[in-house]
Amino acid sequence: MQSITRPYSRPQIPALTGLRFFAAFFVLWGHSMDWLAPFKDSRIDTYLSFFAVPAMSLFFVLSGFVIHYNYRDLFLRSNFRRALFEFASARFARLYPLYFIALLIAISADDFLIHFPPGSQTTGPVLAHFVTLTQSWWYTVYNRQLITVSFFPVSWSISTEMFFYAAYPAVVFLIASVAKGRLMIWIAVFYVGLVLAALIVSRAYQAPLLQMAESSVPDYLGFEYGENSFYRWFFYYSPYTRVLEFLLGCMTAQATMQLSSRPASSSEFRWAGLALAVALFLLLVISVLEVRIIQIPIISDYVSHLEQSFLCAPPIAVILFCVTRYKSWFVRLLSLPLLVALGEMSYSIYLLHTWTLRLFKHPAGDLNLIGLFNVTLSIVCGIALTILLAYSTYRLIEIPGRRWLRRSLGAAISVIVHDTANTGLSQSLFPRPALAKQAALSISVTLILIVIILGGEAVRSDRAIGSVRNLLIHNSGSEIIVLSASYGLNCDTFGHPRSIRDLVLPGNVTEKVKHFCRFSANCDVPVDVNWFIDPADGCAKDFRVAYACTGEPGIKTGYLTAEASGKNIELKCPLDGTGAGSSPSNPVSALPPRDASR
């Protein structure tokens, strides 16, 4: 394949590859503690998992550094259209082959068809999110579960990373315009202060900000839903806060490259050693505070809030700067051939580890000598198996898949772009774009990304879709708006453990019925225990629904007595605006008074 990236490629930095292994290993270690080291009445597994705290931030800041280090000159010196295609093909080839295989495995291993049954309206949209790697881009909830948590959970970071790649062409010219390395450092320091201040304010005014989100975000879930809550998604999973780490990595790379021609003095080297030690110490303190080994009122809460998306990023940026600019014992350690080889496999390690560790999962035991030995053996075997399988997938899937895709996409790019670019052409044939053109290109990419983000959010909003639909299609009749749908509320006193009874809640099937009937004036709802998920096994369950009709006053209700599964209930709204509608195929009895009290 002919590529334009080679004339502008920079020397590889082995220490960064070694550092990438530690990012993957920290995640592996953290999940090993969570799943393989549970003890009764002990938090030792939590305390030992503090190494994992900076793992995701390390991934994202390192990603920004590597992307800018490797692709800055491609955008600055080549035709923008070709650079965009080259960049996109390279990153797609890097991520997608192994991801696609892992997705196929996850569909079976992570019970996709149980979470999203075939034939339901959720199956196609959810699968489309995962195939297009956009599952973390929007707050998408089905059955009160965030899709990035309920299925193939480790893939959220790959989706977030894909957003970084989409955003990079919008910022590359702005960051690259800073020609002086020291100025870039000061800009990065100001940027860090600004971001931390904004995140501190978001914590101080957390309640009103979340109230605003609750009033405008479809399917909003509060703190009580933990990992599925909007708060957790926005500050941890979503790319809109994590991109701040990626941008800091880009700035760090820019400073490093601009200072590369200037030798470091002995005094600078000593100060760099101190900065590296302070950065490592800060990561240790943040990790200890995050897992609550040490608890400090108020400070611990703010640390937990800031750590989700940015607090670890500044010390990590300092570490990356020191690793790439100064030769030290730390750099020599990270550059060891074994660590570099493991770093090359880090993507496979990350994607596979949840399934390999699952083989060694066991119930919590007593904290004694035998228990410690059993846990240690499980962890060692789980990590060893993960690395062995990761080596296989790296050799058999990652490398061949990457090469094949690069060749195929490279040939397609040559046809699409229609230029004569090749590795032998002089850089003078590709003059640096003028500042006005750079600004126009950055703004254009930014606007396209904003349209994609807002468009994806609008597609998930019934209100937005309904407005557009009414503009395009003249409809004189009303449409159904499902307000609440509940299955099995009569079983709330059924003899089951509390964890089972928790499913017997008002509105437990609202989302499914709402999506099934949206934009309809007459909706025949099939009540099916397999579609709704059984909230109380062994209890004959009723079904009740409350809905309204657009343009019509009042709330309509419907009720099916137990057992409701296997029956249909028809919801209807006026078709001609006169209050007349279709006759129901199944009579709908009045809703019992007790539903209103719930």
Helix residue percentage: 55-70%
State the shape: globular
* Helical/strand content category: mainly alpha
Strand content: 5-15%
Radius of gyration: 27 Å
| Biggest beta sheet summary | 3 strands, antiparallel
Placed side by side, the strands forming the largest sheet appear as 3-5-6
Give the overall pLDDT as a whole number.
83
Distance between the termini: 66 Å
Total beta strand runs: 7
Domain count, please report it.
2
Instruction: Determine the number of helices (DSSP H or I, runs of at least 4 residues).
Output: 25
Low-confidence stretches: 1-7, 420-430, 577-598
Q: What can be said about this structure in brief?
A:
This protein is mostly helical and 598 residues long. It has 25 helices and seven strands.
Lay out the secondary structure.
Elements: H1 14-36, H2 44-48, H3 55-77, H4 80-109, H5 112-115, H6 123-131, E1 141-142, E2 145-146, H7 147-150, H8 156-176, H9 181-204, H10 206-216, H11 230-237, H12 239-259, H13 266-290, H14 299-307, H15 313-325, H16 329-334, H17 337-344, H18 346-358, H19 369-417, H20 435-459, H21 462-472, E3 480-487, H22 498-501, H23 510-517, E4 522-526, H24 529-532, E5 543-549, E6 556-560, E7 568-572, H25 593-597
Antiparallel strand pairs: 1-2, 3-5, 4-7, 5-6
Helix pairs in contact: 1-3, 1-17, 1-18, 1-19, 3-4, 3-8, 3-12, 3-15, 4-8, 4-18, 4-19, 8-12, 8-20, 9-12, 11-12, 12-15, 13-15, 18-19
